[in-house]
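Box S2. Input/output pair 1.
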Amino acid sequence: MKRVLVLGAYGLIGAEVTRHLLAQGHDVTCLGRSSRAALKAFPDVPWVIRDMTEMCAEQDWHDVLADMDAVVNCAGALQDGPRDHLQAVHVDAISALARVAAARNIQIVQISAAGVSDTASTAFFRTKAAGDQALLGSGGPVVILRPGLVLAPQSYGGTALIRQLAAFPLVQPLALKATPIQTVSVKDVALGVQHALAGRLPDRSVLDLVEPEAHSLAKVVAAHRHWLGVAPARLTIAAPRWALGGIGKLADALGRLGWRSPLRTTAIEVLKDGVRGDPDPYRALIGDVTPLHKTLAGFESSGLHVLKARLAWFVPLGIAILSLFWMLSGVVGIISVGAAAEVLTRVGWPMWMAKLSVLFWAAVDLALGAAILYRPWVQKALLGMFLTCAIYLISASVVTPGLWLDPLGPLVKILPIMLVIALMSPLLEDR
C-alpha cells in the first residue's frame, strides 16, 4: 500500500481513481482548487486546496509531496478560459512536479489522452504532449496512460453532450456521425492506475487505454440511447459540417463568460479528428479494456439519467430567456417611465417619487439580466431575481392590490417566473 497524492480528485476520472485507491487500502491525499467541491466529493479524505495554475515552480511542490510515494495526475482542462490555462496546468505545473518527484524518486502516473501529439490541431493535445514529454524527460519513475473517450456513470463535458443527444425524443440531432470513437470505462482507467502503482506496467511506458474496435459517433450515441431506454429515433437531423465553426465560436465566446460548453472549438476539432488509440501494447500487458456495450451494460440506468440529459437542454435556453426577460423589463421600464409611474400616482405617490422608483427597479432588472450571463455570478443573480420578484409581488399587493385583477395579469405572471428561477438554481450547481 502506498501514500498517493491524486491531482484533480473531484473530476470525472479523478473521483473514480480516488474511490478505487481508497478501496484498495492506499493512503490517499487529494488536491483540488475548490474546497466546496472537494468536501462534497470526499469529506473524509485529507485535501490540499491549491490551484495548479499557481504551482509552476519547484518550491510549490516541496511541501505537497512530503511523505508521498506516488502521484496520480488526473487534472486537466479542455481549453483556455477565465479559470483554465492549458500551458500552466498541462506543462508548467507538471514540469515542476516532475523535477521534484524525480529528485525524491516519487512515482508519477499521468492520465493523458489518446491522440496527443506535439503537432496536433488543438492546444489541448499539444500541451498534453508537452507535459508527457516533461515527465518522461525528468528521469523519475513515470507511467503515462492515454484513455480514449471516458465513459462513467456520471457525465461531464463530451459524455454529457452524448447523453443529451441520445435522450432527445423522437428525432436524433447529430453531427460528424462517421467520426471514429474508441471508448474506455472510467473503471478501466482506475484499474490501469492500480496496475501502474503495483509495478505491472513498465516504467516510462506510454499506453493507450482504448477498446479494441472503433465505433462511429452515430453508433456511440445509438448505444447510449439504448442504454437510457429511449426509443430509436424516427428521424436523424444532421447538422451541416460548416455550421460547427459558428457553434464553436459562440461556445468560445460563452467560455469567456465562464461557461464550459462541450461544444467549444477544441471539442469540435477533437471530434473531427476522431478519438483513437492503439490497444495492442496495453492488451499485451494486461488484456483488453471493456468494450462500449459492456461498459454501458455495467452502468445502472434509470429515469433520472434521461431526465438529467433532457433538462440539460433547458439550461442554456433558460439562461437566455431569463436574461432577455429581465433586460427587456428594464428597458421597457426606462422607455415607459411615465406610464409606469402613473400606476403609483393613482394611489397617492408624488410623480417624482414614482418615476424614481420605476427607474431604480428598471436598473435592478438590467443589472440582473446582465449578471446571469456571467457564470461565476449566476447563482447570486438567480437569488437576486427571486428576491426581486418577491419584493414586486409583496409591495404591489400592498400598494396596488388591484393589479391582481388586471386582465394582463402582471402579478399572476410573476409566480411561474419565480418557479423557473427556483428550478434553474439546482440545475446550475457545479459538479
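Box S3. Input/output pair 2.
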Amino acid sequence: MSFAIEARGLGKSFAVGRREVQAFAGVDLEVRHGEFVSILGASGGGKTTLLRVLARLDEHTEGELVVRPRGRSAGRALSATVFQEPSAFPWMTVRRNIAYGLWALGVKRAEAKREVDRLLEMVGLAAFADNYPHQLSGGMKQRVAVARALAVGSEILYMDEPFGLLDEPTRHALQQDLARIWAETGKTVVFVTHSIQEAILLADRVVVLSSRPGRVVHQQQVPFPRPRTALGLAAQPRYAELAAELQAALTGAPAELTQGEGR
C-alpha cells in the first residue's frame, strides 16, 4: 500500500534558554492517500509541532519522514496548511486572497479566476467575493483560509485546530462543510484537535498523542458511516464507548472508569 505520509521514530526537540525541550518523540505514523486522520491530544502535548514537522514547516531532529505525492499536477503545491488564527491578507478582497497562491504559482489569470469562482461556490462565499477580511465573521475568515489552501491544488491538507476559536454553531457548520469538501476532493487531511467529538465526527482514524513529549499512545478507526452529524453520533450505541476509549488514552485512566464518569 502506498502512503502519503510515513514517519518512523520521528522526534523534535528545541532549546529554551539552556534547557532542551522535547516536543514529541518516537512517533511512528502512516497516513494513506485520501485518508482523513485526526491527531488528538491535550494542550502542550506537541501535536501542533508534529503537524508543522509533517507539513515541512519545521525540521525534525530525530527519525525519518517521507511525504509522497500521488499524482499532483506540475506547478501545484504538494501540501497546504490552515492554522487556528485567521491568516487572510487584510488589504486583499476575499477573491484576491484565494487567488494569491495561484498567482504565486504562475497560473494564468483566466484559469485562476475560474478556479477561484469554483472555490467561492464550494465554501459558500460567492456573495462575499469582493469583501475584505474585516467585513467577515470568524467563520467566513476560516472559509477563506480553507479555500486558499484548496486553490493551490495541494494533495495534502494540514489543519491545526482551525475551528477552535469559533462559536459552537459556526464550528458545527464548518465541520460539516469540511467533511463535504473532503468527500468531494479526495484529499489527504491531517487534522489537529483537542476535541474528542470533533475527532470522531470528521476522521477515518484518530491518533492520540500523550502529554509532552508527545508519543502515539493509541490509534482507533472510526466505525460510523458518513455523512455524520453530532446528533447522529450521539445516537450510535458505540459512540460513548469509543469516546471513553479516546479519553482514557488521553488521560491514562482505565476506559471503564472514564465511561462511568460520563454517565
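Caption for Box S3: Residues 168-185 form the longest helix (18 residues). The domain at 3-261 is CATH 3.40.50.300 (Rossmann fold).
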